[in-house]
Predict the structure.
Amino acid sequence: MKIIYCGDIVGRAGREAVLNNLEKLRETYKPDVIAVNVENAAHGFGVTPGICRDFLDKGVDVLVTGNHVWQQRELIPFLNENKRIIRPLNYPENLPGRGVAEIELPNGRKLLAVQLLGRLFMEAVDCPAQAMEKLLKNYTLGKNVAAILVDMHAEATSEKLAMGYFLDGRVSVVAGTHTHVPTADARILPKGTAYITDVGMCGDYESVLGFEVEEPVNRLNRRYTGGRLVPAKGPGTLFGIFVETDDASGLAKTIEQIRI
């Protein structure tokens, strides 16, 4: 299976960087599945149902969120209505939405997309490792699911790395998001799982993590939050990964970083 995953979209610059390049991605990589992290797509914080429909209507297969999933209140009912958008699996089970999405391809193969939220320097959530253990009792890579993509949305690189090794050989891909800075460690782990610590954001890189420079610099120089973060409006860059998996085992054969 050929999988493309685009990192955190920040504001309009990020949305346009992905939407305007979807056809190029399809022509170049011939993917079976395209997944996109829309965590910061609405003015830098969360995502709206309208923005989600823009991506789904353009053929994106699954949308991934993160810790800002509750930021745009109108999204909450949409999380229950649409099975192709996911929020972190290790939030309490009684919350709206779901932490996994099953994407069935025309040839009958199935991709399982999962999101986990880290706990180091993040809000209090359930244990991501235990949440995955529970989930993997129902899914076996290469048997009832052809590929498993796991988004590890976390602050700490050490936590992302630990999750990669914890899931090595049991999932196809562990892709880190949230820190918005692409890392140079895309590789196949010893047991066959494709891994990267951070996919990188889709947005204007002449910025601080996708936001206009002025307010982050002001916050660096004072001990209080005085202004509001505004997404940068310059040309956007798309960062993502392309992973090809083995049809028999579901494990990764290659991982490649994408930059447009």
